[in-house]
Write a structure and sequence with these properties.
single chain, alpha/beta, 8-stranded mixed β-sheet, 4-stranded mixed β-sheet
Length: 467
């Protein structure tokens, strides 16, 4: 019997050597050299046909290819248009010289137009596909298409994914946004009682310092400060003279640019040295976070600016550190660094009426001072702490009123009521859309300024004492 079995198995094994074919399967083993790994992907509607989806990816090149050909671009941008996201992804594979693997994708960028539609239909592919990671960070572009972010750095040596990663690493510096991954966004956007937010980004040619100045400037404007600004604006004669000078300088600069332009054209014909110097002096594009995009039922319905986005983080206990600008009695700036912030929210339901009590405790240190007062004196210190508490209260109340006006619970009040009052929540949850805009909210903010770091007195105050 054993010999009979072996006699049958041997011919079958021999036949397998002649049954190999040339058929290529879609799913199978692929060499690493034949795979492209997107590091960032964007989704937009087609400009010609709104029913179609445009997908753009940033694909990093291997170190070997960069060494072999230094004239190549630092990374490759591929775009494809399909009837849905899955078809667009397959067409990308067709257009690319290599197979596409989504295992190393770091960022999903949504254009504003597609975000105003139900994004759940378009991110379904990334949640369903086994190659995609749920930890992919999701972003929405304010006032532009998602592919504009991918293409902004096409001619530079920087990667979009690296720029975004840098933003995420420095999120605690100002706390004006929070990195939100795909799983977190899906859990929020699928909640029928609340809303969701995504970090809103823009492409800016400003330097980082110029952007930060325009982003968080004028947080507190006391009456005396506003009066001084009005007095400065009333000096019309000096301002008009400066404007005339600026206009004359602009005309002179235009003439110089025309002369330089003709010289650059000649230089480009002789080797392009002039064009290279021009490009090196041009401001580089940078990705800046302007706040949050607000989503209701999967659709983008509005934006929070940087201050309101930070106020939302106050409520949700997401403040790591930030800067606050206050003023002394002489309207001189006091820069404060928040070193600790703790938010506690108590949610109650009594007689079928829910209420929310928010308590925010802030610890801050003086990081810079422009004036001459003794800010650690008892009266000055108390006034400074009250000023900061009032500023935080105004901003938090503003974001609460904004959410109520939009009738979208981005503050997660529904979650807090459900967790702290599970039985009573079941009785009111069906009417939450009507209850939330009128819910009673109480806010208490306490601030403690602890130290001024290495200096107790102002440098100006010290100079005045020596004189």
């Amino acid at each position: 019997m054993k010999r009979g079995k072996y006699a049958l198995i041997l011919p079958v094994l021999c036949l397998t050597f002649f049954l190999t074919g040339c058929r290529k399967y879609i799913i199978g083993n692929v060499e690493l050299s034949d795979i492209t790994f997107p590091s960032a992907v964007s989704l937009d509607f087609s400009e010609e046909n709104k029913e179609n989806i445009v997908m753009a990816i940033e694909s990093k090149k291997s170190m070997q290819s960069e060494q072999e050909s230094s004239s190549e671009e630092s990374y490759q941008v591929l775009k494809a248009e399909g009837r849905d996201v899955f078809e667009a992804s397959r067409l990308l594979t067709t257009y690319s010289l290599k197979d596409i693997n989504w295992g190393q994708n770091d960022s999903l960028i949504l254009g504003e137009e597609i975000a105003k539609s139900d994004v759940r239909s378009y991110i379904d592919f990334f949640a369903r596909n086994h190659e995609n990671r749920g930890t992919v960070s999701v972003w929405v572009v304010k006032g532009a298409r998602g592919e504009s972010v991918i293409e902004a750095f096409k001619s530079s040596k920087d990667y979009v994914s690296d720029k975004i990663q840098s933003l995420c690493e420095d999120v605690g510096a100002m706390s004006v946004f929070e990195e939100i991954n795909l799983y977190e966004f899906l859990s929020k956007v699928q909640n029928s009682y609340g809303g969701a937010v995504l970090p809103a980004i823009e492409i800016s040619g400003l330097s980082a310092g110029q952007f930060n100045k325009s982003l968080m400037e004028k947080e507190i404007q006391p009456e005396g400060k506003e009066k001084k600004q009005d007095e400065k604006q009333e000096g019309g004669q000096e301002g008009s003279q400066e404007e005339e000078k600026q206009e004359g300088e602009q005309e002179d600069s235009k003439e110089e640019e025309e002369k330089q332009g003709s010289g650059q054209q000649e230089g480009s014909q002789g080797g392009g040295e002039g064009s290279e110097s021009k490009e090196s002096q041009a401001p580089q594009s940078m990705i800046v976070v302007t706040g949050y995009g607000v989503f209701k039922d999967g659709r983008l319905i509005g934006f929070l600016d940087a201050k309101m986005a930070r106020a939302l983080n106050w409520v949700n206990n997401k403040i790591i550190s930030t800067e606050i600008i206050a003023y002394d009695k002489q309207n001189e700036k006091i820069a404060l660094e928040v070193i600790s912030s703790v938010t506690k929210v108590k949610a109650k339901i009594e007689d079928g009426k829910p209420s929310i009590k928010i308590s925010i405790s802030v610890d801050a240190n003086v990081a810079g001072y422009y004036g001459q007062e003794d800010i650690l004196a008892k009266d000055n210190l108390k006034a400074l702490e009250n000023q900061v508490s009032d500023m935080i209260s105004r901003q938090v109340n503003a974001v609460i009123d904004y959410a109520k006006a939009l009738e979208v619970d981005i503050l997660d009040f529904n979650g807090k009521l459900r967790r702290q009052n599970p039985v009573k929540w079941e009785k009111i949850k069906n009417d939450w859309d009507k209850i939330f805009p009128t819910i009673d909210t109480q806010l208490k903010v306490s601030t403690r300024v602890s130290t001024t770091y290495n200096m107790k007195d102002s440098l100006k105050n010290k100079e005045r004492k020596e004189k």
